[in-house]
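hi!! sorry for the late reply, been swamped w classes. u asked for the two structures so here they r. pasted raw, havent cleaned anything up. first the sequence of the first protein and right below it the tokens
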Amino acid sequence: MTEPAAEDPGPRADAYSQAGVSQAAAGAAVDALVRSLQGIDTGKPSRVVPLPGHYASVLRLDERNALALSTDTVGTKMVIAERLGRYDTIGIDCVAMNANDVICVGAEPIAMLDFVLTERADPEICGELGVGLARGAELAGIEIPGGEIAQVGDIVTGQELGGTCVGLVKLDQLVTGAGVEPGDSVIGLPSSGLHSNGYTLARRALGDVPLDDRRLGRALGDVLLEPTEIYVQAIMELLRSPAEVRGLVHITGDGLDNLLRLEAECGYEIDDPLPVPPVFDLIQELGGVATDEMAEVFNMGCGFCCVVAAGDEARALEILRAHYPKAKRIGRATDRPGEVVST
């Protein structure tokens, strides 16, 4: 798993930057892109429902209904699949990264289009990618009616897999986080491992460990290829229940700081986090990664959070534990906006 040495960004750089990924640069790039897109003039009223910083974009269809959209890729997790020559689960990750974002606004995912960016189209590899996409679609309850394969050998080596998911939601049932109040319960759902974030840092940290190493109880390659959990069924059941769901958060890059993407002027205190899977401890130990940075880059065992009214905590847990027995209250909303603290 040896990686080419990244350019040294200086003595104050964190491990992720040294591995070749600058989260600050990515944020600045997004800001620059958005500034350009804000100038779009279609000559007719905009359908966009403003949700700055949220997980999915929402378009108004009429006075009652809206369309939610999200797009994402599996990132450099694909490198692990390539090295193992196993592509039959990576499609699950693609569905998960998109469908898990769509449900964060309270929408029900209905379909996804996939996009394969490849050096050279290989029928065997594409067939395996399709196996995972189909399984992911079944788990999310969506269809995949089409997609695209682009052969761009002059640009990429290997392949990348991405997609765009769409969902439906009533405008008066949007979940934005605006209703979150201090004292509300934060419920954490366990992740299945790294999911699809932080793999550049993980591969650098574990670069000298063979993929067949079994110190984690099974082959490291199997641990790293464990598919991203798809939370759709559990969250849709929660949304259909009488429990008051005030915020839904997909824990990806930035860890539990993703809670701050909710619209409410609240902070969050995490006083009883979910257990940390051993793979994260191994990354931290071998990569010399600071604890704070681990929490910023990885999900650290919590893949999704539900913020519910304090009085509905027991009801919500009963529903969620039917899908995830280890789900539990991990914290609460506070009156300190802009901060997520662990105690």
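now the second protein. again sequence first, tokens right under
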Amino acid sequence: MTYHCKMNRRKFLRTLVALGTAYGASPLIRGTWAQAGERARVRPGSLAELEAVVATSQGKGPVANTNAVIDVLGGMARFVSRGNFVAVKPNIAWNRSPAQGANTNPEVVATVVRACLQAGARQVVVFDRPCEDSRRTYRRSGIAEAAEAAGARVEHVRAGDFLETRIPKGKSLTSWPFHRYAFEADVFVNIAAAKDHNEAILTMAMKNLMGIMGGERGDIHRDIHQKLADASTVIQPDLNIIDATRIMVAHGPQGTSPDDLRSVDTVIASVNQVTADAYAAQSLPFENLPAGGLFGYIKAAGEMGLGETDLSRMTERKA
């Protein structure tokens, strides 16, 4: 079975208008899509020295592992300054419970929220554009409750939140609407779940960024590997965290049974989503990967110079 998360533009707009109304927010539709021109998010130079650094923690549980990798990278205060607006994008794509492993572990999300607030963030917003109804995925995943309890504001996306953005270095994708928080937040944190994927092979940090993409996402699945690499030329989170508390090794991205999951009790972090994905693909016990562990979008991004894909060139810092 193939899962494209495909939704045509008219249906997407209608759904977001309904959600905006249901949650008391203006849908802010400006024509079809707001025009963002050349806007692009690039990591600040202060984090450049961490581009090839990967922090890992294993065997401590999701909360301690998450705190550990943040500390290894210098603490959340290295990323978040007092008064910052922080946008946190987990995987909340599926109407599945935490035990089913289809979304980011809610404890990992809550830990990141608390760390941001403790570093002085004035506001932390948690959001995603799910593949299923967000009112159900946010609730059943446990992420909405956990994030709010930690002090975040949980938002459902609206049509007017997406900004058409040129991708000058794109080879297959030259323009696409992205969620405005990818550009407007002072700090953008990407928290992915490590999973098998029937088309992309794996979904991790780079693939998780499809949740900030508007438009007909089914179109992204055509030449998906190059398009994900293209998107990474303009969307560069300040911090990428890969939740590998449980990894899904088969029948992704939703899974079919507990047999699809492996408990590895690991969290991985890097400022660079390509580096994070390359490390995770070659280090976690996934099945049926190409020889060497590298594939598709990771290779494409590496060839475009967007991150380190060679383990021997990475600096691994274990907590």
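hope this helps!! also noticed smth abt the second:
The first helix runs from residue 9 to 22.
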